[in-house]
Amino acid sequence: MNRKRALVAAGALIAVAAFAAAGISSHLREKDRRDLHDLTRSSPWPRAELLVPDGMPHSTGSIDNQGFALSFDLNGVPFNYAIRKLERENTFAFSGGVDCGATAVVRCTDLGDGFIRMDAPKIGEGQASVNLYRPAGDRIFGVQAFGTTADVTALKGMLTRLHRPSDEELLDLIRPDGYQTDWS
Predict the structure, then answer these.
(1) Which of 35, 89, 116, 164 is most buried by a 10 A CB count?
(2) Is 81 helix (H, G, I), strand (E, B) or coil?
(3) 32 and 145 Cβ atoms separated by less than 8 Å
């Protein structure tokens, strides 16, 4: 009789644990869905159009009404990647508003195939950078490598070998640690 009671108690305990785990999993999926909606709602484009470079290392990012931006480190070199609204011709700004129409000394080169390279020297406390841009309709894709020696072929790859991230990948890129929506 004791063995039968022990088996019934163990079965009941397993059922309660499974039910609790299912409830927690469901709550976490719902929280992820709310967080993703909250973090992407200001985007000027649908989530399906927020593309990220293939093989990109862990990064941090954000989405606002001007577009989508990621920052990451690759082989010890800091990079920024972005998709931004194209406001006007020849405005390819990343950091500090420096673009090809700037009064600061920058060197812009049309590389053909829609690619524009902008070399920005170190100015004041800033860092020198090599920037590569590719306009596409109402937006511009860009990548910025800090320093003065950047492999332009690798930068082009970051702007051409892109994929639509899964909702989980996108959430991992843009959700800060400890983030909570107003209702979570």
Answers:
(1) 116
(2) strand
(3) no
pTM: 0.72
pLDDT digit string (tens) for 25-72?
555 678 888 888 888 888 889 988 899 999 888 888 888 888 899 998
Fold of 47-174: Jelly Rolls (2.60.120)
Closest C-alpha among 114, 120, 72, 115 to residue 97 = 120
Comparing CA positions, the residue from 73, 99, 71, 85 lying closest to residue 139 is 85
Residues 80, 130 contacting (CB under 8 angstroms) = no
Q: What share of the chain is helix, strand, coil (3-state, %, to 5)?
A: 30, 30, 40
User: At a CB cut-off of 8 Å and minimum separation 6, what does 93 contact?
Assistant: 84, 99
